[in-house]
Hints:
By secondary structure, this protein is an alpha/beta fold.
Amino acid sequence: MSRYARQMLLPEVGSAGQAAIAAARVLVVGAGGLAAPALHYLAGAGVGHLTLVDGDVVSLSNLHRQPLFREADVGRPKVEAAAETLRAMNADCTFTPLPCALDPANAANLVAGATLVLDCADSFAASYILSDICLDLGVPLVSASALGFAGYVGGFCGAAPSLRAVFPDLPDRAATCATAGVMGPVVGMIGAAQAQMALGVIIGQTPSPLGQLMQFDMQGMRSSGFRFDGAPEPADGPKFIAPRDLTPQDFVIELRDSDEAPVPVSQHAHRTSVAEFRQQKSTPKDGQRAVFACRSGLRAWQAGAHLRSHWAGEITLIAMGDTPPTERQT
């Protein structure tokens, strides 16, 4: 009997659905807690080609929510350890591990060849970069986030509004699993929901997972959801660019201090803080592009929002992505 017989018994899947699953090329960005269950179930379902993108290594402090890995994998590139485990699970699938971070320089090429994209990255900059590219290319995006006891998963782009349409603004403070903590089963549940939404998109499930957001609160033991099919796209949300895209003509603000980043994003950048920039009220010259750089993108977003309040020119952001040492503990 076929290993896929039980899912093919479902009339929503059948032989046509299984053929669509086998033909699918899924890009998975992030190979951590969300990706662990998502990859497990996508490989188990027989997704034909899975590309894994993550520049980090396996960390002991993350194993409670990353069951794809073992203690012997600590220090190995996540994507290589994950691909090795997944190949042993299902020889029908092809796995391409890419040990690099997603950024605006490589995102378009990665997304262009995908049937669907899974955003499993613990980075809102990566989420917005993916959403912008997927919206432009018409590629479905299943994005998720988990922190503490809660999280969400949603189906964006393709035939649905983008992530920006649902989350046009960032929070005042950035928190990650490394800084705020997270329960492993919460991440596992949301990652499994990502896999189910992805498979639903691939087989053409009705109603479509695209345009649907699900929220989970496992401290209060409740869940909720809503559709956002008619959400309007924001007109002027700042876009992320790569450092290599800077030009000498840009108005560049480096928001990392010299301790955080001894070398600024460019030699002609002005180094300041968000608070100082708000007080200075400086603006670019006519025709200049404003570029704000920081580690995660949050401070850049905040400074850009302030500039937007009194300046109508082009504003872009750079998330340098310097991972704090606490996130690389082994």
